[in-house]
Structures are given as structure tokens and as C-alpha cells.
Automatic annotation (TrEMBL):
<keyword id="KW-0067">ATP-binding</keyword>
<dbReference type="InterPro" id="IPR003439">
    <property type="entry name" value="ABC_transporter-like_ATP-bd"/>
</dbReference>
<dbReference type="InterPro" id="IPR027417">
    <property type="entry name" value="P-loop_NTPase"/>
</dbReference>
<dbReference type="GO" id="GO:0016887">
    <property type="term" value="F:ATP hydrolysis activity"/>
</dbReference>
<dbReference type="GO" id="GO:0005524">
    <property type="term" value="F:ATP binding"/>
</dbReference>
<dbReference type="Pfam" id="PF00005">
    <property type="entry name" value="ABC_tran"/>
</dbReference>
<dbReference type="InterPro" id="IPR050107">
    <property type="entry name" value="ABC_carbohydrate_import_ATPase"/>
</dbReference>
<dbReference type="InterPro" id="IPR017871">
    <property type="entry name" value="ABC_transporter-like_CS"/>
</dbReference>
<keyword id="KW-0547">Nucleotide-binding</keyword>
<feature type="domain" description="ABC transporter">
    <location>
        <begin position="270"/>
        <end position="512"/>
    </location>
</feature>
<dbReference type="InterPro" id="IPR003593">
    <property type="entry name" value="AAA+_ATPase"/>
</dbReference>
<protein>
    <submittedName>
        <fullName>ABC transporter ATP-binding protein</fullName>
    </submittedName>
</protein>
<feature type="domain" description="ABC transporter">
    <location>
        <begin position="17"/>
        <end position="252"/>
    </location>
</feature>
Amino acid sequence: MTTVAPPLLHLNSPPELKVVEMTKRFGSLVALDSVTLTLKPGTFHGLLGENGAGKSTLVKCIMGFYTPTAGQILVDEQVYPIKSPKDAHGCGIGMVYQHFTSVPAMTVAENLVLSRYSRDQVINWKREYAGLRSFMERSPFQVDLDVPVGQLAAGQKQKLEILKQLYLQSRILILDEPTSVLTPDEADEVLGLLRQEVQAGHLSVLLITHKFREVLAFTDEVTVLRKGQLAGHGVVADLTVADMARMMLGTDRVTKEVDKTPWAEARPVLTVSGLGATKDNGLPAFGPLDLTVHSGEIVGIAGVSGNGQRELVEVLAGQRPAATGQVQVNGTPYRATRREMVRHGVYALPEEPLRNACVPGMTVAENMALRTFDRPPQARGRLWLMLKAIRQAALGLIQDFGVKTPSPETPIQNLSGGNVQRTVLARELSSPEVSLLIAANPCFGLDFSAVDQIHNAIVEARNRGVAVLLVSEDLDELLALGDRILVISDGQFVYAGPVAEANIADIGHKMAGH
């Protein structure tokens, strides 16, 4: 017979959590380099950094998802080898993830009971409900125990994720971008109530965020990571936004040189007017946005993940319907159908190409032909595929774009990430009819040689008059390739200007929603 979860141990203060000289390598990649962080008992601690700075790697080492290459985790000055989330739970550490982990078809009560580390096979629901109601009376959030999770609003779902950790008696909460799915009012309510629990000495919180506003409003201390290293730490009351932006972005950015040539006959290619769309959960994703990209120009969109840029790319690529506004390409309405993309010369290099731009089980040659398989010489009468012509075209692209593959008949899912991206790049840029290229985080996770090749191909397209919309979370990439740069925050453009005049500090403030 199962037992009811014991009450929250509010009589004892949370333990001190200390991470000492933590390093994590993935092959030759150093994701985390000798980072030290201390979460003092009963404090609210912010963890800031650009995308890819090492924040998620650090907390995954703390939670036991990753085994660190070097370093130690101390709880109240005792070394604990945390090898799994269950080990972390034993130390009183719990994590609330960026995406919901509850089962939508089950009720709140069932999800709470399911969250326990328990092997009980029989549940006494009368006893469970008595314990759950008692727990809910003491908790900072109130959620109806009998409602299926799928019927809850996003704010209530996020409260449930936090309640699960409180129910498990976690005394240290790690929150991974907990407000990314919430409205500003919901975010303030959730963080404000947790702040009260921290001030009462019931909890310690480590908040991963990209928003300076949240750091200033709710945290006591902040640690900043940059490129896997500790970039700074301090008491929030003693720091300005400029101080934190300087730590997060650095002042010693080196922009690599690319061979860009001026394009004299600039004309509007992509024109976006009042465009808006919603997220999968129905909340506004972005908009209304106005945007123009000219021929022979790279317009970069900077922003921290989750601010509407993914949905914007999906609308332009025909993967998500627009809610409001209009899009024109070369002065005519554009609705992102395959037929219109061919007619207007719109091509795309999306994020996660194996999922968004390829058919994994199909061959390299077949994936290269996805744009052209229904046109001569690869098709006859729009009915018969000319396999020999498809193969010959693929052989030429493999050579021109340096795709490393055993043969054109190799399934594309067997290739490395860089070679998958090269394959998609070859398909999208080989046509002489390219007018507009939409590229989203085109170099994420790739090695240096692949990055240089993709950067060069994008710049070469720009130099021959292609209009390029480059969406990236890598600010250095945008500064190196872009002619103009925009910053998107909470679905709105909050900064715009030529790259040559870019103010890094101002861009950092805007990216962080301040």
C-alpha cells in the first residue's frame, strides 16, 4: 500500500549547493570550462548567458544527465557524485524544464503521484487525496486536483511543474527558462510567488533566463557564462544592465572577414507588412512585423530562442499559417506554397535540416532532387522519374559543395550533421533562379570547416544579387555576414540598424528584453 508524501520540510533551511571547477567535453568540443558557482541557502540566483554559453550543460551536470569531465558538486560542503536525476533528488535538488513534462490525459492529482520515485503498485486514492489536499493548502500555487492537465492553461501547467518538485520535497529548484511559455503577467506571478518562498527560507532557486528584467526583479545574485566559461558573478543590487550585458556579450568580439561586394541594383525582394502568427498553444508568437529585404543584402535577425523567430521562418517557408498581415516577393503576393516558392525563387536553409528539410530514409540524390524531381530533365511528362538524370545532378552537387558521402545512394540520415547541411545547401543554392534565401541557424552544431563553407556560400549568393534573411542565435555570425541587423524580443522588432554601426551593448539589452 502506498504512503502519502510527507509535508514540506519548512523547518529546515535549504542546503548550500556548490559547483567547483566543472568541465564538460564532448569529444574536442569544450562545452563547459572550469566553471564554479555557489547557490547560497535561501537565495534566488540568476544564470545568464547567450544561447550556447553552457547554461544547460551546467545544470545537466548538476542533475546527473551528464557526467562531468572534471569538477565536483558539493551539498552543504559534502561531495556528492550525482549520476542520475534520482541522485539529485536524494540531495534535495529538483529541476523544472523549459517544456512541460506532465501527461496531458491524466489529472493533476495523478501527475503528482506519478512524479514520485515510488515502486508502489497499489494506490489508496482516498489516502492520497487527503495528503494532496493538505499539500496543496501549504503550497504557493493552487491548481485543481481533478482537472486533466490537457485542459489547463499554460500558466497553470507551469505551476504544476513547480508543484511536482515541491511535492517531491525538493529544497533547491533549478528553473530552465520557466517563463518562455508564459505571458508577462503569468511570468511575474509565478516568479513572484517563488520569490516569497525563497524569502521565507523554504527554497533556494537557480533561474536560467535570458531576460535582464527577470534578473533585476527577482534574483539576489547572478552568474554569467560566455562560451562555456565563467564571465562574471555579482550581487544584483550592485550591477547595472550594462554590467550584465558586458559580461554576457563581451567587449572583445572579433568579427571574421568575409568577401562581400556591393550590389548596385538593390530592389525590394521580400516585403512583410503587419505579419503575425500564433504558437502551437494559441498564444501570440510574433507580430505585427514589418520587414524588407533587398537584393544583394543579408538582413540578420538576432534574438534569444523562443521570441518568435522560429514561427516567423515557418510562416515564410509555408510550414505555419499567418494570422495577420501580408507577404510579398518581388512585388507580388506570396503565400508560401511549393508552386509559389518555385515561381518566385524562394529557397530555405532551415534549422535542424534532417527533421525540417529532408526525408531521412531517402538517399542523398533523392533529397537533392526534392526541388526538381517533377521538372525536366529529372522528370518526363511530370510522371516518369529519370533516375539517371537525378543521379548525375547529385554527383555534380556532391562535388561542387564538398558533400562527404559514400555514394549518392547513401541514406541521408547516415551522414554527419555538416554533410546533411551541405546537402540541403547544395539543393537550395544550386538553382540559377534563387531570388530569396531564408536561412535559420544554418551552422548550429557544425564544425569549423562546415561553418566556413556555409558562410561563404551564403555570402556568394548575396554577392550575385540574392536577398538573404538570416535568422541566428549566434550574434558573431550575424555581425560577420549581415548588412543590416534586427533584434526580435517577445515577437517584436526592438532594434534595427546597419551592421557597420551596430551597438553591441544596445543589442544585448534588447535581446534580453530590457
